[in-house]
Amino acid sequence: MTDTVPPGTDNVRERASAALDAVGATLPVGHGLTARTPITGEDLFELHATTEQETEDAIAAAEAAFRVWRTTPAPARGELVRRLGDLLRAHQGDLADLITIEAGKIRSEALGEVQEMIDICDFAVGLSRQLYGRSIASERPGHRLAETWHPLGVVGVISAFNFPAAVWSWNTAVALVCGDPVVWKPSEATPLISLACGHLVDRAVREVGAPPAVHQVLFGDRRVGEQLVDDSRVALVSATGSTRMGREVGPRVAARFGRCLLELGGNNASVVAPSADLDLALHGVVFAAAGTAGQRCTTLRRLIVHRSIADEFVDRLVAAYRKLPVGDPFAEGTLVGPLVSAAAAEGMRQALEKAVAEGGEVLVGGGARLVDEVPNASYVEPAVVRMPEQSAIVRQETFAPILYVLTYDDFDEAIALHNGVPQGLSSSVFTRDQQEAERFLAADGSDCGITNVNIGTSGAEIGGAFGGEKETGGGRESGSDAWRAYMRRATNTVNYSSELTLAQNVSFL
Ligand code: NAD
């Protein structure tokens, strides 16, 4: 398969400017933050980084906006999100361009990311009329017991480069209908798409007459994030990124008794059982492992295949990998775009070296591509590595397209291998054996937050709650009842009798 050579940096810069113009956003020209593109590995624009004082002002403005927003009826808050969803629909192509330019995603995946944003807006609009509390049977006569959900406060959203807009939208659409203003600190690698999203919310805010500070964007590196983390006016810090980041953020928010929602690294696995439909499994595995150039939190990193089918399945996998078109993420037909940075490519190279030192055999991939054509970019061949055991490198998340293959003999062993890593985000089993499928989903099966049958580990829908266990951080975002993390619960006891009856039959006076 021939590689597609990407366009030059000037061309990418023009495309970025055109997308920003179409959205109506103006570049905050200045210093402190560089917008760059992994397509060529070169710089696009110099931008103003948010200062400490500007962050302070933003948090204060959000706190003031909260006082108005929390008593705005939830369906009226939903109108803001409805309008945002309309604007996202109208600019789906422009936003997808910016995602491709900054995160390196191929076109269909970038469009898919914007689709997810539209979907969560639709979901949140419905949610704005469904923030239900429970009515509970009281043990006392003439009493009513109920729970009410109230807005929580300012939500600080810290997001990663690889889903630069979808993760923001999961948090923002839900937080806004829950009555919480949002202060967003996007990844320093993706300021342009953040600028565009921020501009579209500002427009929606103006059109529906919401308080301007219900949504603000802060541009900068982790220092800006740290200011949000340490500020007790930020009621919830929703942070998506590496486990290293979560390990730093979690205790700091806890120290001030703030609320934290952590969405951290994954080390996702699929079990392929002897009864599996191997054509379907192959398709699912290649998309999950090589898609997004291995840069999804749900990317498939470990394949646990039954020994009886391992050789056949791995041969087919290697053949499919050899045909993967690498290169320009804008070009039709490309399936693997660039890695986000040279550091990511170096991380991949080192992981492969360690895997070999730990007894692994690289069956395909691992090399650099398009080195002469785009010397500053990092295009790599997705790799498949057969491992003798689940060694130290296999237990780590390397944010690059490396798929480690392990074999098993019985299903208990497959589950033990599957769960034998520190992370717990996404998992799947390919099988036509109902007992195996149900066992995988059962309490003593996969220990992940996402457990699938006959589908890969990546590509979740917004309707379900998204997140994972163990070092993935335990947070849940997006659909189902994830909204509860953005609200505070009040338990109400109302005495409508003329007696003061104490609970548990306590008598006093
Ligand atoms: P990263 O941890 O380097 O950065 C993520 C964000 O955190 C950035 O905005 C960064 O500026 C900020 N940050 C870093 N250190 C901080 C600190 N000490 N205090 C406050 N903010 C801080 O991650 P990345 O390289 O952008 O993204 C890749 C990682 O994100 C992978 O590990 C991936 O698995 C994970 N991820 C997880 C999910 C999920 O839902 N579980 C989704 C997407 C990405």
UniProtKB/TrEMBL annotation:
Domain Aldehyde dehydrogenase: start-end pairs: 36-489
Record key words, sorted: NAD, Oxidoreductase
Question: Which catalytic residues are annotated?
Answer: E263
Assembly and interaction partners: Homotetramer.
Report the EC code(s) recorded for this entry.
1.2.1.3
Under PROSITE patterns, the record lists:
ALDEHYDE_DEHYDR_GLU (PS00687)
Protein name as annotated: aldehyde dehydrogenase (NAD(+))
The superkingdom listed in its UniProt entry is Bacteria
- Please name the CDD domains in this protein's record: ALDH_F7_AASADH (cd07130)
Q: Which family does it belong to?
A: Belongs to the aldehyde dehydrogenase family.
